[in-house]
Specification:
With 64 residues, the protein is α+β, with helices and mostly antiparallel strands. It has one domain: Alpha-Beta Plaits (2-Layer Sandwich), CATH 3.30.70.20. Helix content is 28%, strand content 22%. The structure holds iron/sulfur cluster (SF4). The site of iron/sulfur cluster has 14 residues, from helix 1.
Length: 64
């Protein structure tokens, strides 16, 4: 599963990297970046789905 962030939509609220530092981190400019290239682990896939669901900007998308 690929996790993507639409930087046009993201308004840097920070939920993704605060709640799921195993998947996201903040770069030097405060933008979120995805740490895992291809999410295969079942637990991590659930975390990615949760992050996409709670993102207030609906900026996180998942691709299988
Ligand atoms: S939760 Fe959504 S809006 Fe907030 S930083 Fe992450 S991608 Fe951006």
């Amino acid at each position: 599963m690929k996790v993507k962030i639409d930087k046009e939509k993201c308004f840097m609220s920070g939920e993704c990297y605060y709640n799921h530092p195993e998947l996201f981190k903040m770069d030097d400019d405060g933008h979120p970046v995805v740490l895992v290239d291809d999410v295969a682990d079942a637990a991590l896939r659930l975390h990615a789905k949760e992050a996409a669901e709670v993102c207030p900007a609906v900026a996180i998308s998942l691709e299988d």
